[in-house]
Design brief:
The complex is a heterodimer of chains A (115) and B (115). In chain A, 0% of the residues lie in helices and 50% in strands. Chain A has 115 residues and is mostly beta strands. Chain B has no helices and twelve strands. Classes of the chains: A mainly beta (115), B mainly beta (115). Chains A and B meet through strand 4, strand 5, strand 9 and strand 10 of A and strand 5, strand 6 and strand 10 of B.
Chain lengths: 115, 115
C-alpha cells in the first residue's frame, strides 16, 4: 500500500542531544513538509521541500535542520539549539503535478519528549 | 498573508444532533480550502476540500462543508453526529494563485459527541 511512514513513533531526547526523525513516502509525491503540533497551537510549519536537494524554512525553523537527498525521504533533525523540542511532529506530502489540487497525506507522527 | 481562524477550541454536541465546526479564512484572491480530522496520537486524515464549483462540498464519513465567499467562511457540518466523530478537526487554506506555497492550518477544534 502507498503511504507515508514516520519513525520512530516515540522518541526520547536527552538535554544537548541531536535526534533525527525519519519520514519516508512511496507515493511519488514531489513535496514534503514537517509540522510541529503543540496543544492549542495547531500545526506550525518547520521546513518544506518541493524538489530533491532543495528546501525552504517554515515559520519555526530555528533549531531544526532537514535534508532531501532522495524524493522519498525527508528526515528532520532536532538539534540541541531547539530549547523546547517536546512536541508531536507530523510529516506530510503532496504531488505538485496539479498545483494546489490535492490535500496532504500525513504520516502517523512522532512524539518527541525531552528527558 | 494567508490565515485561518477556528473560533471555537471545543464543540460539544449530543449524539444524533447536527454539528457545525466553524472556520473563517483570509487569502488574497480565491482560496483552496480543506478540512482534516485527527484522532489521538495519529496523523491528520483528509475529509473534504473546496477548489471551485458548488459551494456545498460533500466529504468522507457524512461530513459536508459550505463555502461562503462573502463571509469568507468554510464551516464543517454533519446532519447527525456520532460518538465516533469525537476528534480534533483542522481547517486549512492556501490561495489559488500562490504557486505551491504550503497550506496554513487553523489551531483546531476539538469535537466531543456525547451519547
Amino acid at each position: 500500500d502507498g503511504g507515508i511512514t514516520q519513525s520512530p513513533k516515540y522518541l526520547f531526547r536527552k538535554e544537548g542531544q541531536n535526534v533525527t526523525l525519519s519520514c519516508e513516502q512511496n507515493l511519488n509525491h514531489d513535496a514534503m513538509y514537517w509540522y510541529r503540533q503543540d496543544p492549542g497551537q495547531g500545526l506550525r510549519l518547520i521546513y518544506y521541500s518541493q524538489i530533491v536537494n532543495d528546501f525552504q524554512k517554515g515559520d519555526i525553523a530555528e533549531g531544526y535542520s532537514v535534508s532531501r537527498e532522495k524524493k522519498e525521504s525527508f528526515p528532520l533533525t532536532v538539534t540541541s539549539a531547539q530549547k523546547n523540542p517536546t512536541a508531536f511532529y507530523l510529516c506530510a506530502s503532496t504531488p505538485l503535478t496539479v498545483p494546489g489540487d490535492y490535500g496532504y497525506t500525513f504520516g502517523s507522527g512522532t512524539r518527541l519528549t525531552v528527558v | 498573508a494567508q490565515s485561518v481562524a477556528q473560533p471555537e477550541d471545543q464543540v460539544n454536541v449530543a449524539e444524533g444532533n447536527p454539528l457545525t465546526v466553524k472556520c473563517t479564512y483570509s487569502v488574497s484572491g480565491n482560496p483552496y480550502l480543506f478540512w482534516y480530522v485527527q484522532y489521538p496520537n495519529r496523523g491528520l486524515q483528509f475529509l473534504l476540500k473546496y477548489i471551485t464549483g458548488d459551494n456545498l462540498v460533500k466529504g468522507s464519513y457524512g461530513f459536508e462543508a459550505e463555502f461562503n465567499k462573502s463571509q469568507t467562511s468554510f464551516h464543517l457540518k454533519k446532519p447527525s453526529a456520532l460518538v465516533s466523530d469525537s476528534a480534533l478537526y483542522f481547517c486549512a487554506v492556501r490561495a489559488l494563485n500562490s504557486g505551491n506555497t504550503p497550506l496554513v492550518f487553523g489551531k483546531g477544534t476539538r469535537l466531543s459527541v456525547i451519547a
